[in-house]
Fold:
Amino acid sequence: MRIPMILLTLIAVSISAHARTWTVEKDGSGDYEIIQDAIDASADGDTILVGPGRYDTFRQYTSTIDGFTGMTIAWVNKSITLLGAGRDLSIIGPEEEVLQIDGLNPGNMYLDGGGLATVKGFTFEKTLTYVGIRKPAVFEDNRVDGTDKDRFAGYGLFVGDASGVEIRDIEFLGPGGVFTANFGVGAVTIERCTFRAGEVPRFEARNAIASSAHGLTVRNCTFEGVGVALSNTFGGTAVIQDCELLMSIGGVSVDIGSVVARNLTIGPGEQNVAIAGASASIELYDCELRGGSLWTIATAGNVFARSCTILNASEFTVFNPNSNPLTIDLRYNYWGTTDVEQVRAWIDDAGDSVVFEPILQGPVSAAPQSFGGLKNRFRN
Structure:
């Protein structure tokens, strides 16, 4: 049965007309002093304005999705908008790190079931996993501050059982950025974010993004001092583009699944690209791989690279320990030299799977070029 357009319009206008704005202020001048009280009073379509200050009142919740019980400061199970006064002003989290309350795992915010929720203008800090997202959400212009976080304690942001999650303009500090579960996670977009781990020993370095989402997109992000910028596992699929990856261990790692990378600057580090198994693969386009102290590319799976700069910073540029046949197509790239024999000497290939000729005579400009124009730069 078709619903008349005028009826849909009237329904939308009715919902909008009944939407309400609530205020939360620490000094008691708003509707509430505790964020959860405002959420409990709100309805779908409402907006909650949260004033400056630290909000640290934990409440127990039971997930509407699977009955999981935990402690959180803000349990969001409605389609609402929460707006802080700004990431430097509205802080959700205790003054001292809290990793357990009455035997339950604590978090700062838990987005749980229901329609789209928008969260903007907060800093989250000092709990086990700061923000859990299990529903469509827009999470933007926030700070996830794990500067003082125990290196083995949770992630800054967890995504599970959700699709249509947009994470934008977020400042991730300290170890542990974004983790997506290996079940029920669809389209997730992470864009214009910075991941800064700070000065940490190698054994404390962690993945900035650990994902098994089917449809992850990462773009226009910067990674500094993290262990691995993007770790793709459990059959996930990802596209990462227009990012700078300055990491201590690895740039992009693929365990099981596939990644397409475009216009990345990676390195230095121990290895720029790592492919762990034959069921994993990566495609690289217009990327600059600056070299690793172990290898630039370490692969036991399939690799396809075009119009990239692949530099050497150790004994070998490419390492393939897999004696079984693979597709490792590294033709039409620049290797920092025009000496084909030198490039050949930089490749340790147990399976005789690497194809690298012809090579380019120089780095490829980031500006788009026709294939015919590129052909003049190949060395046969």
